[in-house]
Amino acid sequence: MEKTLDHIGIAVRNIEEALSFYVDILNGEVLHRYTSHAKGVEVHVAAINVQGDLLELLEPTNHSSPVARFIRQKGKGVHHIAYRVNDLEQAINESKENGVRFLEDTYRTNHLGRRLIYLNPISTQGTIIEFCDYPNQ
């Protein structure tokens, strides 16, 4: 199955401070902002288009969110790389047939209609990878 780069998630401590770089220096355009209160997510998100590439700035909303833990352990910076697939269920099944493990509790549909799941970093040499699709588009 074809997999194409969808977006890069970037962990930040403060979205307002980070936005100035991505908008003023990289000439990015803020597409939308929202807050996810879903358990195990808990972030403020700013989606930015930089010359056709999508970046998502992720600011934790509490000290126990996964992004807050990530920042404590690794610091600010690239949190995950998301790949768009044609059919998320099929991509999961094909990957599992090849021994890839997933973080099953991360499977969800966000408020934009994007279905997503994270691969277990054990299967990706330590990189946090997201598979996603947009079934309603």
Q: Note the total helix count.
A: 3
Round the mean pLDDT to the nearest integer and report it: 95
The tally of strands reads: 8
**For this structure, what is the CATH homologous superfamily?**
2,3-Dihydroxybiphenyl 1,2-Dioxygenase, domain 1
> Architecture, CATH level 2?
Roll
SSE pattern, N- to C-terminal: EHEEEHEHEEE
Helix content: 10-25%
Largest sheet: 8 strands, mixed
CATH C-level class: Alpha Beta
Shape: globular
CATH topology: 2,3-Dihydroxybiphenyl 1,2-Dioxygenase, domain 1
State Rg.
15 Å
* First-to-last CA distance: 18 Å
Please indicate the count of domains: 1
Keywords: Metal-binding
Protein name: VOC family protein
Family: Belongs to the methylmalonyl-CoA epimerase family.
Pfam families: Glyoxalase_4
Structure description:
Residues 4-134 form the VOC domain. Belongs to the methylmalonyl-CoA epimerase family. Keywords: Metal-binding. This is VOC family protein. With 137 residues, the chain is α+β, with helices and mostly antiparallel strands. It has one domain: 2,3-Dihydroxybiphenyl 1,2-Dioxygenase, domain 1. The chain is built from three helices and eight strands; from the N terminus they run E-H-E-E-E-H-E-H-E-E-E. It has an eight-stranded mixed β-sheet with strand order 2-3-4-1-5-8-7-6. The longest helix is centred in the first third of the chain and has 11 residues, at 15-25. The chain is globular and about 45 Å long. The mean pLDDT is 95.
